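Page 42, continued from yesterday. The earlier attempt failed because a stray header line got pasted into the input along with the sequence. Redoing it now with the clean sequence only.
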Amino acid sequence: MISEPTLAQIANLQLRSNRPLVICDVDEVVVHFTRDFEDFLGSLELELDPSRMLFNGNIRQQKNQTLLSAEESEDVVVQFFAERTLEMQTIDGAVDALHNIGKSADVVMLTNLPHEAGDDRRANLAGHGLNFPVVTNSGPKGPAIRKIASQVSAPVVFIDDSPGFITSAFHHAPDVHLIHFLHDERYARLVAPLDFVSLRTDTWQEMHPHVLKLIAGN
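This time it went through. Structure tokens are written below.
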């Protein structure tokens, strides 16, 4: 199921059918998320429990370690994106790599955050020199990836940090090359290897040449 706002954004994409395509997540792949989110939580006297996967019941009160409910956690995440999206900083190597990849492929940023924060996300990325189209999504990413990838006949690559989104892509768009980017080693330790990914890595320095090989058909 793809939301109406996401469908409208996909419909506005101008992709070249014979050109390779790279669909790239944003948070914790292109921009730092976890470190900034932890700073934001600290301002609210909250913290992450690093023994749990992000957002899977891992936001807790600093004083008594009480976990927030799912609804409370969602409210905090929405508040974070409303207040901090414009300030987010890029991960080392991401900007140069995406510029170089963009010479050989179309690039689409597929990001799960409140649709209302979409314009702030576009402005933030543009401020870092990343003027690629941004599609905001909610829920699993597989259906949106399938919809976007159906517009091209060349190789398609999808990059994300979430094992759930990677798995969703595998089930909905099995012909897409999948790269699992896990920048935060604390959470990487909690994620079992996925045997259907083309690469699991924590640096753009390793991922960049791999993407170039994939879009070249190698």
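Notes: Strands lie at 21-24, 46-48, 59-61, 106-112, 134-137, 156-160, 177-181, 199-201.
Reminder to self: strip header lines before submitting.
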